[in-house]
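#struct-queue
[09:14] JT: dropping the first one here, sequence first, then the C-alpha cells:
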Amino acid sequence: HDDLLGYGKLNAAKFFENVTGQPPEDASLITSENQQEDILNQLTEPKVLIIGIDGVRGDVAEMVSSEEDSAFGRMKDEGAWTYASTVGPIAISGPSWSSMLTGVWCDRHGVYGNGFENHKLSSNPDLIDMIESHDSSINTGSLVYWKPIDSTIIGPGTADIQERFEEDEDLHERAVEILRDDSSIDVLFLAYDDPDYAGHRYGFSPNSTEYVDAVKLADERASELLEILDERITIGEDWLVILTSDHGGGGANNYSHSPSTTTDRTTLMMVRGGDAISGEMYNSVVVDVAVTALTHMEIPLPTGSAELDGRPLAFEPNSEESRVPNCDLPISVTVVTHAEEIAWASMGILLLAASTILIYIRRSKTIEDDESQQSSHH
C-alpha cells in the first residue's frame, strides 16, 4: 500500500489508467492526496476467493502437491495448510457444502443427506447471504457445478453473479474471465466437481489413474487462478484464498464416500493471504471456511445462539477445537443416503438365500436318489 501510495503521488493519472484500463477524463480530479487515497482504498478492501473441489482425498492432494507448479504445493509453501481437515461426521456433499457455507454443523443446519429433507438452512444463512446482508455493495459471485448448492444452500438470486454449469471446464473459463476482467469482484465462491465424478466412476483411490488425473486437473485450474490473483495483488488488492473440498472417498467402498469412514471424511484445507499464519494447521474442520472468510472481510461474526461453529484457524492456530456435532442420521435419511449399499447388500442376501435353497434342493434330490437306488436293490 505504501509503495502504491508513493506511485500514486508521483503520477496519479497514470496510476488511475493502469488500474481502470483507461485514462481519467480529467486528471486534475485525482491530483490531491485524499483523492488518490480513495482510489487506493478501493483496491485494498479485503477480498476472498474460495476454491471448492468436490471429492478430494487428503492423501491424494498431498501426492499431487509435489507436481511442478502445483497450486496445492504453492498454497502449502505460502500459507496455512493441512491434508487432514475433517468435514464432520457425514462425508456427503449436502451436509458438507452446507457446513462449509453456513459455518455451522449438520445438527444446526439440518442437512443430513443430498435430499435436504426438513433442512433448516433458512435460519442458518450461507456465507454469501451473510456478506450481502452486512453490506450489499460488496460484489459477490458464485459459480458451481452441483445444482443443490445453487438452488438450496445458497439459494437463487443471493449473489450478484450466480451461475451454474454442466462442465467444470466452462465453470473454470468463467472464473478466469471474472478474476481477469471484473475489477469490482470482492468475493468469489467456486465449486468444481471432476474429482468426485472420477472417484465414483473409477474409484477414490491413489491407485486410480483417472481419479488422480482429475485431482491434478483441478490443481492445475487452481494454479491458473492463483496466477491471475498474483497480478491483482501486485496493484494492492488484498486477496484471501481458501482451497478445500467437501469430502474424500474410498474408505469402505472404493467407489463411494459412504459410510463416512475416516478416509471419506478427510480432505485438504489451505489458506493463503490476509493474516494467515504460515504452517501446518491442526484440528481443521470444514465449518472454519465461512468464519475465516468473514473474519478477513472484517464482517462481525454472529453472536449468542447464532454463534458459528467454525473458527478462523488459519489466523488463530491456537484456537479451541470446534464443538463435536450430534449428527445422528434419521432412519429415512440413512436409507436414502446408503441406498446403493443397501441394494448391493440386499442382493447379496438374496443370492446367499438362493444358493442355500439350491444346495438344499440338490441335497434332497441326492438323498431321494440314494433311497430310490437302495429300494431297487432290495
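[09:21] JT: and here's the second one, same format:
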Amino acid sequence: MTIADSAAGPYLVAMMPNVRDGSSAPPRLRLEMSALYSLPPGVGPERDDPVIAAAMRAAGFEVMHGTSAEHARRLGMRVTCGGRVDRPEQADELARRWVGDGADGGSLHVGTGHEDDAQIDRLVAAIIEAGTRHGICMCIETHRATITQDTWRTVQIAKRHPEVRFNADLSHWYTGLEMVYGDWQAKLDFLQPVFERVRFFHGRIGNSGSIQIGLTHPSAATAIGHFREMWTRGMAGFRRNAGPGDVLPFATELLQPEINYAPLHPDGRGGWTELGDRWSDALTLAGIARACWDAASPA
C-alpha cells in the first residue's frame, strides 16, 4: 500500500508488490539463472537437469528463471516467469496464469516499439492494474524492439506511471544506444527514475558494439565498471522501497549463439565454436551482483 492525497485527506492505495519469496525475512538479493542453452562440450555442468540444479545451488543460485512451473517444481526450485504483452487485455490473463503457477513474479516484453504514447500508456496501465489486482510483480523489461527500446521513452513512462516496475536488461541500452558515446554520468542521472523502479535484473554485459561479451574480452574491464554503476543504482532503488519478504532477482542471462548473442570464432576444423565460457561468466556475474548489492546498502 502507499499513501496518496485527495481533497478529503490522505488515503491508502493498493500497489503492485515487489517479487516476494513467501517469507518475512529482510529484503535480499536472489540469484537466478536463465538460458544456459547449447553450452559447448566440456563447459559447465552436464545437461541432466538434476546435475544442473545441484551445480546451480552449489554456486548460490536459487531459481532457474523462465522455465515452466512444472519443471521448476521437479527441480525443487521457486519460479519466476517470462512473458509478452502486446494488447492490454493480455496483462490480466498473464497475471492469472503466473499466480496459478505459483510464480513469485516475472519479466515482460511489451509491445514492438512502434506504439505512440497513448498506446504505451494503455499497455503500461493494464500491466500495473493486473499486477496489483492479482498481487504479483510484473516487471517491464528494458529490451530492443519493445516500448522500452530507448532510454528517453522509458524515463517518460516512469514519470507518467510512477508505479511501473522494470526488469533492467541493460545491455540492450548499453550496446544498442551506445551509451558510452557522450556524457556517461549525465546519462546515469537521467535514468534515475528507471533505476528507482528496478525490481528485477537480467545479468549480461556487452560493450559498445556487441550485446554479450565474454568477461575476459579486452573491452570487458571498462564495461564491467559501467554495469556495476548501473546495477548498484538499481539495487539501491530497490533497497529504498523494499519490505520484509521482498527479493530482488538477479538472473544471469547469457544467451546462446543460435540467436546471435554468444559470439563465435572458427574452430580450425571448418566449423565454429564459442569464444567464451558462459557457465564461468555466469558465476562471475553472480559475484559482481553480490558486490553491487553490498555497495547499494543504505547508509
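[09:30] RK: nice, looked through the second one.
[09:31] RK: The radius of gyration is 19 Å.
[09:31] JT: good to know. The domain at 2-295 is CATH 3.20.20 (TIM Barrel).
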